[in-house]
Amino acid sequence: MEHQVVRTVWQWRRFGPAGLAVLVALLHLGLRGLPIEAADGLPAAAAGLLVGLASWLVLDRLYRQVVQAQKAQADLQTAYQALQETHRRLLTVHEIGRKIADAADIQQVLELASRAPTHVADAKGAAVIMVDDQQGRLKLDMAWGLSDAYLARLRQRMEAGLEANRCLTCKPLTARLGGDCILFGGMDDLARQEGIQSLICLPIMRGQKMEGFINAYFPSPDGPPAEQLQLLNIVATEIAAALDSVRMRASQNATLYVIENLSAPDEALDDMLKQMLAITLAGWGAEHGALLLYHPDDESWHCRAERGMGSSPARALAQTLAESARKTGRPVLVPNLAAANLDPGAAGFRSAAAAPLLDGPRLRGVLVMATPRPDFFHPRQAPFITAIAHQAVLALNNAELHTRIQQVAVLEERYRLSREIHDGLAQTLSMLGWHLDMLKTWLEKGDYPRLSQEIDRGRQMAREAYMDVREAIEGLRVHTDRAGNLDEALREYLADFEERTGIQTHFQIDHPPLALSAETALQLLRIAQEALSNVRKHAQARQVWVELAHDEAHPQLRLTISDDGRGFDPALPKRRGHLGMSTMRERARAVHGDLSIVTTPGQGTRVAVTVPLAPAKE
Question: What is the pTM of this model?
Answer without folding.
Answer: 0.47
